[in-house]
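Dear V.,

Thank you for sending over the compound details. I've combined the ligand you provided, zinc ion, with the protein sequence from our construct and run the structure prediction for the complex. I'm sharing the raw inputs here so there's no ambiguity about protonation or stereochemistry in the SMILES, which I know was a concern on your side last time.
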Amino acid sequence: MTEIKVVRKVLDANDTVAAQNRKLFAEKGLFVINVMSSPGSGKTAVLERTLVEIGGEIPSAVIVGDICTTNDADRLARTGAPVVQINTDEFGGDCHLAAHVVAEAVSRLDLSGARLLVVENVGNLVCPAEFDIGEDIRCVVLSVTEGEDKPLKYPLMFRVCDVALLNKIDLIPHLDFDREAIIANIRAIDQGMPIFEISARTAEGFAPWLEWLKEKVKSKS
Amino acid sequence: MGIAIRIVEIAISAIPPDIEDARIERVNLKVGRLTAVVPESLRFCFNIASSDTPLASASLEIEETPIVIECGECGAETTIERPPFACSECGGGKVTVVSGRELDILSIEVADPEVEAVEGRE
Ligand SMILES: Nc1nc2c(ncn2[C@@H]2O[C@H](COP(=O)(O)OP(=O)(O)OP(=O)(O)O)[C@@H](O)[C@H]2O)c(=O)[nH]1
Ligand SMILES: [Mg+2]
Ligand SMILES: [Zn+2]
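Below is the predicted structure of the protein with zinc ion bound, written out as structure tokens.
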């Protein structure tokens, strides 16, 4: 047997394309947020409300990854922002968006005038955390119905994200929910991460989140 | 699955062109504990991704690396088994991960030519 040295990062090709995306976004002055969560935590619902609220002030565009439907794209298009849907089926049914897939979607998107590009990743708390797409910030959405231990079970996701949205707080009265525990568990992974407690249904808690996001977008130009 | 496919692609591209009908017997990987990779599932996906390739009978040798954090307050390094991501010296939580995110192919091991590969490939 002959051993042949390779020494390469498995994801080097993705990292290269992500760096190209990042350069393109910088040239366009476009701020990019990558939104990740388990299936059904409320990414689309949070983004619908976010885009409606800030759309007047910050022109936005959306890329949405979904394994096979166009439901999310249809919902998000109603906010008035241009939307491109990626069916990862065409890319082998991947459970995450890779940088080249985002690059292809960007080429199909009318970005004229846009300041913010929102990417709704495929619902999955594992793989998307490993794939850089050239974004400025990563956002994890966690709903109060998912169990307080999620951050401890998926530490990579909570470690790579810059902000956490704790969604569906309108349901708390109906649940046996331990708020202190879930916050402590997020803090155990990342002590300084901003956490916004929100409800996409009632809009509770949205104001501070929108302020935070607007500040971030404006700081890149 | 995407990761397994990339491993197969990189391994194939690393086969020296002068070896005819090369058969890879082993792929040596370094995988950090703070990655999206679970060794058992990676092996499972690799077996699917490698079928009908020179890696069809290859095994994955996975060297796992622990999570090591460096404290932004006192500079101490801590190896952690599980959360919290906090400094063992001063308890500070302003830490950077210095090891544990590795996902590298270190080497491939190619079967010696006299061990003939019988199965046909395109
Ligand atoms: N009560 C309540 N329900 C919510 C809230 N946000 C989302 N939902 C509901 O949760 C379900 C899933 O929401 P989506 O926005 O589709 O979740 P998602 O994360 O985009 O789902 P995938 O794209 O399939 O991964 C829907 O039935 C929403 O109406 C909320 O704040 N409160
Ligand atoms: Mg959705
Ligand atoms: Zn310290």
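A first observation: Strands of chain B lie at 24-32, 59-65, 67-71, 77-80, 95-99, 103-110.

Warm regards,
I. M.
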